[in-house]
Amino acid sequence: MTAQTGNAGWHDNSPPLPTLLLALALTCLQACTSHSPVDHQPSADQPHLLADAVWDTGNARFIDLDELESATARADYLLLGEVHDNPRHHALQARLIASFGGAPNTVAVGFEQLTQAQAEPMTHYLLAHPDDAAGLGTAVDWENSGWPEWSLYQPIFQQALNRGWQPLPLMFNPDNSMAILEQGYGAVLGKQALAALQPDTALSPGEQAEVEALMHTSHCGKLPASMLPGMVRIQVAKDAYMAWVAAGTGQRGVLIVGDGHARKDRGIPLFLRRAAPGKNIVVVSMVEVEPGLVTPADYPQVNSSLSDFIVFTIRQERGDPCASISGIATDQDS
Question: Residue 306 contacts by C-beta under 8 Å, 6 or more apart in sequence?
Answer without folding.
Answer: 31, 32, 57, 263, 264, 265, 283, 285
